[in-house]
Amino acid sequence: MSEKLHPIRRGFVLPGLPHPLLCPEKNPGWQRLRDGFDQVREAILATEADLLLIYSTMWPSIIGHQIQARLESKWVHVDEQFHDLGSMPYCFRGDPEFAEAHRQAAVERGLACRTVDYHGFPIDTGSVVAQSLVNPDNRLPAVMISSNVYADRAETVVMGKAAVDALIKTGKKAIAITVTTLSNRLTQSFIEPDQDRIHSLKDEEWNRKILEFLEVGRLEDAAQLSRQIQREARVHKVVNFKPFWWLSAVMGPHNYYSGKVYAYEAVHGTGSAVIGLERASNAARDLEFDEDNPETYAGDRNVLGPSLLSLKEKGV
Amino acid sequence: MSKGKIVAGVLAPHPPHLVYAENPPQNEPTAECGWENLRWGYERLRKSLDYIDYDSIVLLSPHWQTYVGSHFLGVPLFKSLSVDPIFPNLFRFHYDMKVDVPLAESIEANARAAGLVTKMMRNPDFRVDYGTIVSCHLTRPQWDKPIVGISSHRLSAYFNVDTMQNHMLKLGEATREAIEASGKRVILLASNSLSHRHFVSESEVPEDMSQEHITHHGQYLWDMQMIELMKKGRSREIFDLMPDFTEQTMAETDSGALTWMLSALGFPSYPAEVHAYGTVIGTGNAIVEWRHEGQEALV
């Protein structure tokens, strides 16, 4: 597909903890993140996108993939960890037509996927923070996508491609947002705002490496590094670190991007960054990639079973 | 004031499917049937608990997940709608519950004095998790007893099961001491399944019981081993086996709920009563009661 015609206009990586939304004034770093969100809001305003596509690592699903399809989601949310920071009232506009198109496209590519449309469905803190800050007036409808706990790269990539299928089918253009911290290890005690630091030097070094990649537009390189990031800088709550797999799948699995790091700060020990990516004519690196580029999801492979090649040779 | 006591401890799993199949008026979706063995088990539990006089229910739920410390509900009343994020088609429950805030504060203070990181949850807009709601509803559907809700500090994920167990040992002791000082008669609920490798797809009719079975034979073997230890009063061995059990069956004991409760009970050496065992979307669930009053010498 021509990059000029690609339905994803820009991509962003946004952190999901509530501090930049609820209390940025308490810590200069949180305020810089807040300022970064404000710049992203302005950048989105300058595009001709029709909707926001939000993939949040803070919305886990286990029965396949879930897509928020409610036309209007209204609630007062409280984070289950940082409840003392306050409440987050919201009223978000969705795009049921697109959500259904995305679901169909995902199913056609072999995934288990369903839409959810229920009053009071618990929208996660990350999605609330992201939309509240970059789309506060609901100028654009937002379609939120879950992060399946058990999904590995193939499923996540195929889910991303299904989103692009749906955009092409509906003729819509979107901003892709993945809500995630970089390192996600929280400081294991309650701290004063001015005590906030990245949890460890190791986390800091890996965060800086990710920022280095994305700042020069090496999105696919960063995505190919996801398993290592999971091992080195992530608490193992889920199977793998997926947000960059998704982002590169929806934007295009290459390095032809330019990046901007609006802010990078500690939020209760985590590495929280506001990063933007847009298409560029040159790639910062043009390397071969180790992992393949699946078009459909055929289920988990039985690694102890016969190889697909030997089955094919036998006419199976 | 007389000394308070834990009158019973219960392993009270929280699959929302059980509430769905019960068709209570609080739940919006309705079911034709489903998971009768476990629901009958909860009936037996309720009949058993009808013979006990108690003031409050204290439970630890895997679905209030905190990564910095153990948290405690600290608002007197919660009234809202709980929607299960995984099974919103089955569980949309209008809840109205009271919290025993003084007891919660006392447990929190004891835990903090024991060196644990703790926090009281004081935000009235907070939405109580569905694990707490399901376990409480199935244990006491009248909703006439105040509860104390304790979060699951996810140390198993951050560190390992051993670290989690060390934390829960102290939290359990702090819980018991606070209850004894309160003068109250209290039931503890450990709101968790046993083996927890669940299906990743859902049948078209969720309550189609022809689709229900344990995910893997190995899970079943492990569940039976743990239940056998409960029936024989070998709760210390349950504690010792917890790391292997949790790892090999993806057990929901990673939440710390069962360890916390057994610690609060003082690792009873009397037999527990197994009211039921059954599967829900492949996970193993047991409803088990430790009738603690009068058995305190056997810990």
Cα distance, first to last residue of chain A? 34 Å
For the sheet with most strands of chain B, the description reads:
6 strands, mixed
Helix content of chain A: 25-40%
- Continuous helix count of chain B: 9
Order of strands across the biggest sheet of chain A? 7-2-8-1-10-9
Count every beta strand of chain B, where a strand is a DSSP E run of 2 or more residues.
10
State Rg of chain A: 19 Å
Order of helices and strands of chain B: EHHEEEEHEHEHHEHHHEE
pLDDT < 50 stretches of chain A: none
- Kindly report the spatial arrangement of strands forming the biggest sheet of chain B: 7-2-8-1-10-9
String of helices and strands of chain A = EHHEEEEHEHEHEHHHHEEH
Oligomer: heterodimer
Tell me the structural class of chain B. alpha/beta
Count of helical segments of chain A? 10
Strand content of chain B: 15-25%
Question: Level of helix content of chain B?
Answer: 25-40%
Structural class of chain A: alpha/beta
Describe this structure in words.
The complex is a heterodimer of chains A (316) and B (299). Helices cover 34% and strands 23% of the residues of chain A. Chain A is built from 10 helices and 10 strands. In chain A, β9 and β10 form a beta hairpin. In chain A, α3 packs across α5 (153-170) and α5 (153-170) packs parallel to α9. The radius of gyration of chain A is 19 Å and the shape is globular. The two termini of chain A are 34 Å apart. Chain B is α/β, with parallel strands linked by helices. Chain B is built from 9 helices and 10 strands. Chain B has a 6-stranded mixed β-sheet, sandwiched between helices. Chain B has a two-stranded parallel sheet with strand order 3-6. In chain B, α3 crosses α6 (161-182). The longest helix of chain B is centred in the middle third of the chain and has 22 residues, at 161-182. The chains are: A alpha/beta (316), B alpha/beta (299).
